[in-house]
Amino acid sequence: MNLIKKTILPVFLATIWISISEFVRNEFLLKSFWTKHYKDLGLTFPSEPANGAVWGIWSLFFAVGIFIVAKKFSLIQTTFLSWFVAFVMMWLVIGNLGVFPYGILLYAIPLSILESFIATLIIKKTN
């Protein structure tokens, strides 16, 4: 029972939060940036259910990473270390591939920091 309360529940709740945050940000707030950028590249922005499933897995892995980091660092340290590893590194990679619309950073940076902070807070408070 302790395993569920101290490990599975925090990771599960953080995964749910991350998934919702990613969905709202990328499907409602920033989708026009993505679709226009991909159209300008001659591509179609991938938004099939399989892509959503992969983002669900990414959300779980991000939550697990936060859970591990949170054991050693404070709330703020965990937030920014996790944010850097998950988002900044991802943006570097997709920017290098030429499929990142840099115009979203004005919105994506504060929203992704907020996402990381709340996920870390969930883990810290439920652990």
Describe this structure in words.
The protein is mainly alpha-helical and 127 residues long. The chain has one domain. The protein is 82% helix and 0% strand. It contains five helices and no strands. It has helices at residues 2-29, 31-40, 49-70, 75-96, 105-126. Helix 1 packs across helix 3, helix 1 (2-29) packs antiparallel against helix 5 and helix 3 (49-70) crosses helix 5 (105-126). It is elongated, with a radius of gyration of 15 Å.
Seen as an oligomer or otherwise, the chain set is: single chain
Structural class: mainly alpha
- Cα separation of the termini: 13 Å
How large a portion of the residues is in β-strands, by DSSP E?
Answer: under 5%
DSSP strand tally: 0
For the CA atoms, what is the radius of gyration? 15 Å
Order of helices and strands: HHHHH
Helix content: over 70%
Number of helices: 5
**Can you summarize the main beta sheet?**
none
Q: Quick check: average pLDDT?
A: 95
Global morphology: elongated
Number of domains: 1
